[in-house]
Amino acid sequence: MLSNPLLALLQRGSPSAVVASLALSVLTPLLVAGATRLRMPLALARWTRRAAPPRPLLARAARGHAERALLRAAREQFLRLQSAWDAADLDALRRLTTEDMFEELAAELPARGHEPNRTEVLALEAHLIAFEAVGPLELASIEFSGVVRESARRGPAPFREVWMLARRPGGEDWRLARQQALM
Hints:
Layout: H1 4-12, H2 15-34, H3 41-45, H4 65-87, H5 90-96, H6 99-112, E1 120-134, E2 137-149, E3 157-167, E4 175-181
Antiparallel strand pairs: 1-2, 2-3, 3-4
């Protein structure tokens, strides 16, 4: 059930405000629930090249064909976005994200530096946390976890993130609306 402030945002027709509010409502319990599980400096030191991705905090196994298709699309979206980020491809980033998320990423890109970036995704898991139809949007909260290597000098490193993907119903591609790194 939507809260009154969220309902007011929907009535004003501001999709980015709705996405931001829903992101907070999904991410806050996830961060609180996982806070104690994420304090693991010794466990991080034990990660190796063949390490398994961290277990999801709130997600569950996909139950149906539609959920599996959504998670397959989410994994592909993750890889396309990582590739666009590595290449500093602003056109691709614009196509793959909402307007607000694009502005955030474009502002962060110069801090990455001018050297080419190459991220190897060694393991990638995607788990559905929530799927909702809210006003004119469909929103999917996906917990990604896995192992990446961001340079030859550094070894593999685990990651865990929650992404909120948004789209208008009817076949439009999913776009990244919010992202929160959990570790």
